Amino acid sequence: MSRNKKYIIITGQIASGKSSISELIKKRNKNYLVLDADDQIKELYKRGAELYKVLVNEFGDSILNEKGNISKAKLRRTVFLNDENREKLNELTHPVILKNMVSLAKESEADIVFLQIPLLNESINILKKLVNIDEIWNITASDEVRFNRLMSRKGMTEEIAHRIMEIQSDFESDDFDILSIENNGDYEELNNKLNLLFDNSCIKEEKKIGFFGRFKKNKKEEIEELNEESEDTSEEESDVRKVSEDEIITEEKVEENTEESLVENENNSERLLQTIFTNEQKTENIDLKEIEEKDLEKTKLTDLSPLREDKIEKIENDIKNSVEETLDEEINEDNGKKKKKMKIWKKILLSIVSFLIIINALFLGAIYYGGVNYPVNYLEEIQKYSNEYGVDPKVVLAIMRVESNFKTDATSKVNAKGLMQVLPDTAKHVAKLLNIDANSIDLNDAETNIKIGTYYIKYLMQNFSNMDTVYAAYNGGIGNVNTWLKDSKYSSDGVSLYNIPSSETKHYVNKVNKALKAYEILYGKEFPTKKTKGFSKFVENVKNTIRYILSSF
Hints:
With 553 residues, the chain is mostly helical.
């Protein structure tokens, strides 16, 4: 099994061309492993397989076809028209599918693994715990192209197609390297764009390492550098010792030569004296004193004792200087090593302090937003009617936060009343649909207002398949939104609004989405069932903080 695998995730919205990319990758290199989540689903959905009983127990026999197998079309209708069912399906299936894919990948011999995962926004938190993601390839296509591709699929209806396109979004994250291509053309054009992906991919690079990996690597390099410096120092010391030994040998040779010269000098003196005495008679006119002086001068010239003493003294001084220089170098090197160690510890300390500051800021921010700006009020009423009418409770909470900031007696300039700012005419219309007496409705009563407002959201969801359009209709009215959808200046498909002409409604939609995102980050999928107080509220806010931090990173 390869120890240096690279994991590349292929993702994108439905009908963007992920499967086509996967097929092209398989043809390009047979050594690449390409795993498709849809293929895993087919295997795990088979009768008797791991997820079959789980899904049937959860959604009932209504998702089965005549042969008793899970019908993809029926399952689509069950989950995509109901947000709660969709979230439940994802919760049940994603961990099993992803673990199965990663297990196959790790057991393979392939160095490059491609995992095709359509709903990466909903899977990323699970996936990054299972494997180190090197890169993400995001495949995109225009809404028109994707819709046409969807309608060509068996068992697909316009309603389901619009709903799927509405709830899926492109994957965005600053934590990963993301390469994107647009796939609006034919197969050949897509193949050419695949070349761009490979040219810019991490496949040509070394496998990426995280912060702690880089830290260990840098630490290892510093240790190796210090070892090399130590070896250089040892070599220098060896050279000094070698020089000293050579000088000592030279000194010994000089001493030997000096002794030989002295012996030779004595012999020469004896021979000279013999010559003098032998020729004494012949050299009567020669002054003996001059001869003695000459001999003395000759003896002085051949006497090397002073030279030897100077040489020895010079060698001793050279050795002493060499040793001092070596010691100085060793002291400087030790100081350099200590400075390097101090720099490393300063960096570590600075990183720890910075991390604690960031955590503290996020903690205080999450406490503030969770406890003040985005509280959870009227939970029992919201939970009751959101479950009854099939509306996401976080949507009800977000609209209530934007409309009245949880004030039961709030009244707008157009006479919209209560927590969800329901107009009296709207309340009468909803009363007819619910078959209740319109005159008995008190919009200042919290539970009544939530009931009417939540049912009205459901009513809008039945008329519009895009949630931004639902928010726009809640604020600007159904008639205005229908008019905008028919105008090409504001809508390209008659389903969604790429431009909202009313600045008030546009601002309202943005505020609802912001509040919804805040509630999703702070409270996640496990929406609280009751409001907490005191210490319990603090504990809840701490949990929200941790969730907020994990979402932020």
